Amino acid sequence: MPRAPGRIFADGPRELAEGLVAALRAAALDHEVAESLTHPFHSYPARLHPATARVLVDIIASNVRERSLLVDPFCGSGTSLVEARAAGLRAVGSDLNPLAVLVARAKTWTAPAKRRAKLRDVGHEISGTVLAAGKAARRSGAEPGKMRKPTGFDPNARNRRLAAWFAPHVRRELELIAMTIDDMREDDPELADILTACLSAILYKVSSRTSDTDGTWVDRNVARGAAARNFVARVELLVAGLDDLAPAGGPPDVYEHDARKLHEIVPDGSAAAILTSPPYAGTYDYAEHQRLRFDFLGLRHRELDAGEIGSRRSFMAGPQGERSWRGDLADCVTSIARALEPGGVAAIVIGDSYAGGRPMYALDDVRSALTDELFIDAWASQQRPMLGAGERRSFQDRAKAEHIVLLRRR
Ligand SMILES: C[S@@+](CC[C@H](N)C(=O)[O-])C[C@H]1O[C@@H](n2cnc3c(N)ncnc32)[C@H](O)[C@@H]1O
Fold first, then answer.
1. Which of 178, 122, 184 is nearest to 150 (CA)?
2. What does residue 308 show for φ and ψ, rounded to 5 degrees?
3. Other Cβ atoms closer than 10 A to 242
4. What is the 3-state secondary structure (H, E, C) of the chain?
């Protein structure tokens, strides 16, 4: 969520509405929560602000039994799952994006202190190997490093796509880190996945790409050894966050799954609460934005390419984009209603957007998608700045806003 403050409007029972207002405000006021636990581990487009998630989890936790189940069907990088675990709730997260699942699992990894120490040791070993290999290569006249060949990716096409983004010495270091992780995968797949998430976390720092959502080329002038050093620093950061999270409850289950089919992983009527932030209509394009990471890490993304909802590319394709969005949102709301126990609540964080040349009012869209089993218990909306002339023209005198809607199952 952007930090820009804007006017807030709210409705519903006083205590609940004030809680939602506090959740919106928390994002701009926070100097602490976003840096705590495993939150700072990995960037993610349209990540829920950790301080907003904390207030919402507190509201939920104070209204449900201990160890109740909280579900996030669009868990992304796992912000809500980290907070749910810290609050002692059981949690299930899912997302169709393989990178999201990798990162969310790493951020909520629950393992004894010895295993966490092993993660740190292996991180140092890998970094040491890569630094030593770099020195040896320089002494012997910089022979070209080996390139990894992940299954399911054409090595030449992968090479062409990646070459533009990394200086050759950086690429050598990164590929060697990835290959060393591959070597340990058979013996310890769990640790290999967590180390892969650490590698993903530093990828842009040492590349020429600005960010996931900004594909502009930047000259970063990355020093020799920087990839290896950044990698081990990121392992340390994750382990420190996991150590802080360790006294809290058990691990959430995180699935690569379509939110429209939530019933396949969450039994009907079993969730006390849902806390989630679906895509904002036509705003992001996860399958496109994160292709560099998928290519580098060897993550298969066919399901995301086909099943991502609300993507910018789907709105660019014409008016059927908007129709599909409404149908998909309705399917998600139905799935949420099925998963909730009677009286259960769903906090949905969603924003207005400018999609396919039209304004999309998210609160209205959620309202139209409601089924008979659900009603809006409370909502709060904070005005957000318009981004560009097209957006200003299309919204005319109606404000653009970000919303938290609290739905309740009858
Ligand atoms: C706004 S982001 C969620 C961010 C998350 N709250 C966080 O803090 O990182 C929306 C997510 O929806 C996912 N997504 C898009 N279509 C999906 C689908 N059909 N099923 C499940 N997840 C989907 C995207 O991969 C993305 O992670």
1. 178
2. -60, 130
3. 24
4. CCCCCCCEEEECCHHHHHHHHHHHHHHHHCCCHHHCCCHHHCCCCCCCCHHHHHHHHHHHHCCCCCCCEEEECCCCCCHHHHHHHHCCCEEEEEECCHHHHHHHHHHCCCCCHHHHHHHHHHHHHHHHHHHHHHHHHHHCCCCCCCCCCCCCCCHHHHHHHHHCCCCHHHHHHHHHHHHHHHHHHCCCHHHHHHHHHHHHHHCHHHCCECCCCCCCECCCCCCCCHHHHHHHHHHHHHHHHHHHHCCCCCCCEEEECCHHHHHHCCCCCCEEEEEECCCCCCCCCHHHHCHHHHHHHCCCCHHHHHHCCCCHHHHHCCCHHHHHHHHHHHHHHHHHHHHEEEEEEEEEEEECEEECCEEECHHHHHHHHCCCCEEEEEEEEEECCCCCHHHHHHHCCCCCEEEEEEEEEC
Token output for 330: 């309705």
* CATH architecture, range 8-106+249-292+300-409: 3-Layer(aba) Sandwich (3.40)
Q: Which amino acid is at 15?
A: E
Atom of ligand 1 nearest to the CA of 328: 19
The string of pLDDT tens digits covering residues 249-300 is: 788 999 999 999 999 999 999 999 999 999 999 999 999 999 999 999 999 9
Task: Kindly report each contact of residues 182-186 with a partner whose C-beta sits within 8 Å and lies 24 or more positions away, as own/partner.
Answer: 182/148, 184/122
Q: Reading across the β-sheet that carries 271-276, which strands appear in turn?
A: 8-11, 374-383, 401-409, 340-351, 271-276, 69-72, 90-95, 253-256
Residue minimizing CA distance to atom 22 of ligand 1:
95
Ligand 1 lined by 212 (C-beta under 6 Å): no
pLDDT tens-place string over residues 80-135: 999 999 999 999 999 999 999 999 999 999 999 999 999 999 999 999 999 999 88
Measuring CA to CA, which residue among 299, 328, 296 is closest to residue 311? 328
pTM of the model: 0.96
Q: Could you tell me which residue, 141 or 399, shows the higher pLDDT?
A: 399
Which ligand 1 atom minimizes the distance to the CA of 73?
A: 21
Q: Is 284 in the pocket of ligand 1 (CB under 6 A)?
A: no
Task: Enumerate the CATH 3.40.50.150 domain ranges in the chain, comma separated.
Answer: 8-106+249-292+300-409
Whether 307 is in the pocket of ligand 1, judged by its Cβ within 6 Å, is yes
